[in-house]
Specification:
The chain is elongated. It has 674 residues and is mainly alpha-helical. 63% of the residues lie in helices and 0% in strands. Helix 5 runs antiparallel to helix 6, helix 15 packs antiparallel against helix 16 and helix 18 runs parallel beside helix 20. The chain is built from 33 helices and no strands.
């Protein structure tokens, strides 16, 4: 190390000295030229040739550098919705269900536009763009080459016209026209990628066939199901028996390694791993070599080929040994496929996964987010949640990097890691994960559904582990700009407010519940009413609670076109009645008391006692007499005590006294009619 430093220092000194000499030479050259002009002397041309001016390197800026700099100055607005919904404020969603519907609608609109362009290209043949930028113009999606030729076949393969490509290939074969191996392999690539089916924009012609297949599947479901051997394609798999890809592969006069590798990857992708393994054996018998992508597909298909954990690992090692024997260099996707297989190997996976990570380090392959996702799934499943050592090391690595997409499973990491943090109940790790998610462009890995799942788990953990001030701060910043709280999140928030004795925030939570569409969820209504009616609060808070109770009563009593009214229970009736009585709203409270007879429920002692106290404060003896009648009609033993309290605590007129005396258990029905 010291020798390298000394050697480097000498080189730097030499480099600086050369620069100084060069600069001195330039100054000397300038003096000589100026003096020669003044004195009429000349300088030898050889000396001038030795002097050379070195221009500094030109700084090349990225085309997006200015936009990236401006974007770095913008911060997220916590009061605004997701940027995806900014196009149409009128249709801006208010809850998770509406946001999903909005996203699906936008994607459906894109698919409809593709369909129109695909099937009606004649309406888009004129371009009025000025200036005409070719890269921004729509692609030509209609074939330009007519006739039966290999060039026409190549064009249809490039346009992904599956059915037309197969038909044209068959015509060439029937006419005796040889098709080159390269073109045939391209056709196999298309068939194996699409699963021998038409692309999304070309499935209209197969609508009737799909309906017939659905009817056949329905009839097959009624019959007893036959147990299929492991590795065989399922009835609904995309790889059909003797499909076009297999037929074309069998009639090929010449096959190379590309042909076999394409078939193997297609079979694995579309649910025929056993056939893929047989095709790999044929490849070895023909003395061909598979490429790295084929080995990746085979390693990923190992769990469908073997049942036992140890057998799976042994088969994966066989493929790895074959890679070494054939001189195939593994890449990142190879190790990710191996770790994904180890997720389904139980204890064997936990013992071997760290060796896979060390092998990646030895080959100087940086892990992707999918690598870490598989690693967490291997170690944090079932009973293996007691240790947080692995996730700490993973987050230490992730927090330092801004990742780019390299594996389709990269997008699952942050949601999986947050789920692990919640199961471990470790808020420190959750904060560290959130910092890693906000690092660079890592947030781009999450779509709307993953974003909602991530923040929902994070918020539940905050409600469980943090102080209420921190919880409310995050709640204000997260909703609705980052996610829409779920019913479970609202329940966690209510429990956090209860634990912190911060129940004065319940009216604002109720407003959020109405906006999120949770005003008819029975579990949330029960929890909210239980918290509001449990204890006495200052009058200002009780008035706010009574306003919430009025909204809840309206929810129970109104019935929409597509929804039935929420059914009253004895507990919810009593809690709403308590909230009205504590706010001094005696008429609304009595309206709730009358519902007990309608639903055949008995009010609690606390509800009747507090109602009587409220009637006393409001100087309403008539309401007290109604309560005694109600208790007598329900046959409650407390009716006599309520009757005595009414006599002692209220100033009754003669008529009221007679009415009170006439109330007994026997004539309760008559008194009700009066």
């Amino acid at each position: 190390m010291a020798a390298r430093l000394v050697r480097g220092g000498w080189q730097r000194a030499a480099l600086l000295g050369g620069r100084c000499c060069s600069a001195g030479g330039r100054r000397q050259r300038y003096r000589c030229s100026s003096s020669s002009a003044a004195l009429g002397k000349t300088v030898a041309s050889s000396e001038a040739a030795q002097e050379e001016i070195v221009l500094p390197r030109k700084k090349t800026w990225d085309k997006l550098a200015v936009l990236q700099t401006l974007a770095s100055t913008v911060r997220r607005d916590p009061t605004a919705a997701h940027y995806m919904f900014q196009d149409d404020p009128f249709l801006m969603p208010r809850n998770a269900a509406n946001s999903r519907l909005f996203a699906l609608s936008k994607e459906s609109g894109r698919n409809a536009a593709r369909y129109i362009i695909k099937h009606f290209p004649q309406y888009f043949d004129k371009t009025f763009a000025e200036p005409d930028v070719p890269c921004l113009m729509p692609e030509t999606l209609t074939p330009q080459t007519e006739g039966v030729s290999e060039e026409a076949l190549k064009e249809r393969i490039c346009l992904r016209r599956v059915k037309e490509s197969v038909d044209l290939f068959d015509q060439l074969v029937q006419a005796g026209t040889p098709v080159s191996l390269e073109t045939t392999n391209s056709l196999l690539d298309l068939l194996c990628f699409c699963g021998d089916k038409e692309s999304i924009l070309e499935k209209e012609e197969e609508g009737k066939e799909s309906m017939e297949e659905a009817e056949e599947n329905t009839s097959e479901q009624k019959a007893p199901k036959r147990q299929l051997p492991r590795g065989s394609p399922s009835p609904g798999a995309g790889w059909r028996e003797d499909n076009n890809a297999e037929r074309i592969f069998k009639i090929m006069p010449e096959r190379n390694a590309h042909s076999y590798c394409t078939m193997i990857r297609g079979m694995v992708k579309h649910g025929a791993p056993a056939k893929a393994y047989d095709m790999y054996v044929d490849l070895l018998n023909e003395r061909h070599k598979a490429d790295v992508h084929t080995f990746n597909a085979l390693i990923a298909a190992v769990p469908q080929l073997k049942d036992r954990f140890l057998e799976r690992w042994e088969l994966a090692k066989v493929f790895l040994n074959h890679m070494a024997q054939q001189g195939v260099q593994p890449n990142l996707l190879t190790f990710n496929a191996l770790l994904k297989t180890l997720r389904k190997c139980g204890g064997v996976g936990r013992s071997m996964s760290l060796l896979v990570i060390k092998e990646m380090e030895a080959l100087d392959i940086d892990p992707s987010l999918a690598t870490y996702d598989h690693l967490l799934a291997v170690f944090y499943r079932g009973a293996h949640l007691h240790s947080s050592g692995i996730i700490s090391e993973v987050l230490d690595d992730v927090e330092k990097r801004s990742f780019t997409a390299q594996d389709p499973d990269d997008a699952n990491f942050f949601t999986t890691a947050m789920q692990v943090c919640c199961e471990l109940k470790d808020i420190r790790l959750a904060y560290q994960l959130n910092r890693a998610m906000e690092m660079g462009d890592n947030w781009r890995f999450m779509d709307m559904e993953r974003l909602n799942a991530y923040w929902s788990k994070f918020f539940s953990l905050l409600c469980m582990m943090e102080q209420i001030d921190v919880v409310l701060k995050w709640y204000k910043e997260m909703s609705p700009s980052l996610f829409y709280p779920s019913a479970r999140n609202i329940l966690d928030l209510l429990q956090a407010l209860d634990a912190a004795n911060h129940l004065d925030m319940l009216p604002s939570v109720w407003e959020d519940m109405k906006q999120l569409g949770f005003s008819r969820r029975p579990e949330l209504l029960d929890e909210l009413l239980a918290l509001m009616s449990r204890d006495q609060h200052p009058q200002e808070v009780q008035l706010a609670f009574a306003t919430c109770a009025e909204d809840i009563r309206a929810v129970h009593e109104q019935a929409g076109r597509d929804q039935a009214p929420v059914q009253w229970t004895g507990s919810t009736l009593g809690q709403v009645a308590l909230l009205f009585t504590r706010a001094g709203r005696i008429q609304d409270a009595w309206h709730m008391m009358e519902h007990f007879q309608h639903i055949n429920r008995i009010p609690s002692e606390q509800v009747m006692e507090e109602f009587l106290t409220c009637a006393k404060q409001a100087s309403a003896p008539e309401e007290a007499i109604k309560l005694v009648k109600l208790a007598a009609s329900l046959g409650l033993p407390s009716s006599q005590r309520l009757k005595s309290r009414t006599k002692e605590e209220f100033e009754l007129s003669e008529e009221q006294k007679k009415a009170l005396e006439s109330i007994t258990d026997g004539n309760s029905s008559d008194s009700d009619q009066e």
